[in-house]
Write a structure and sequence with these properties.
The protein is α+β, with helices and mostly antiparallel strands and about 180 residues long. It has four helices and twelve strands. It binds flavin mononucleotide (FMN).
Length: about 180
């Protein structure tokens, strides 16, 4: 093992391995609170799982307020932030809606098919109805049936603007080149 590899071992592979699978879009998950106001959390652990029918999976720790809201209301939206939203993403991803009203961090627009709104300045949004939840380790895999989605400045791939991509901890990046 070379010395670089040895350093990573000291850090601990449990926290380390997700970073090897990064970057991923820092998705903003919007779910409705009991009073009908939107709550927003950040999730970078997500993946498409089926094309037909369209299903997405998001890994959400059971301790998150969003987890309980999605289980209750059974609907959520996923919103793709541009890099200019980094500060709001950091707040939404570090404060819980249990203690802090995060709705003033973002502007919202009505979604087409679900009750939780989409984020107005996001470069893309995906509307989901809860399909199932599977608890795995310290997260739940929340599966969403996709009922609508759109994106701005999108041809076949992200081109006009990069989504905000999460590398781990407080490190982010953007796409600089498409090839
Ligand atoms: C960039 C970033 C990515 C995150 N990804 C996840 C994730 O995939 N799953 C998760 O459970 N929490 C993730 N978090 C943490 C939650 O967003 C954070 O705990 C948030 O405050 C939960 O809000 P809530 O309690 O209002 O639901 C992430 C945070 C950041 C900043």
């Amino acid at each position: 093992m070379d010395s670089d590899a040895a350093k990573t071992r000291k850090w601990g592979f449990c926290e380390f391995y997700p970073r090897l699978l990064s970057p991923r879009v820092a998705v903003l998950v919007v779910a409705l609170k009991e009073d009908g106001a939107p709550n927003v959390m950040v999730a970078a652990w997500h993946t498409p799982v089926s094309v037909k029918p369209p299903i997405v999976a998001v890994c959400i720790s059971p301790g998150r307020y969003t987890h309980s809201l999605i289980l209750k209301t059974r609907e959520f939206t996923l919103n793709i932030p541009p890099p200019s939203m980094k500060e709001a993403v950091e707040v939404a991803g570090s404060m819980s809606g249990k203690d802090f009203d995060k709705s003033s961090l973002f502007k919202f627009s009505p979604a087409v098919k679900v009750k939780p709104p989409i984020i107005a300045d996001a470069i893309g949004s995906i509307e989901c109805e809860l399909s199932q939840v599977i608890d795995v380790g310290d997260h739940s895999i929340v599966f969403g049936n996709i009922v609508d989605c759109w994106a701005r400045g999108f041809g076949e791939v992200w081109r006009r603007e990069s989504p905000l991509l999460h590398l781990g901890s407080n490190f982010y990046t953007v796409m600089k080149e498409v090839f």
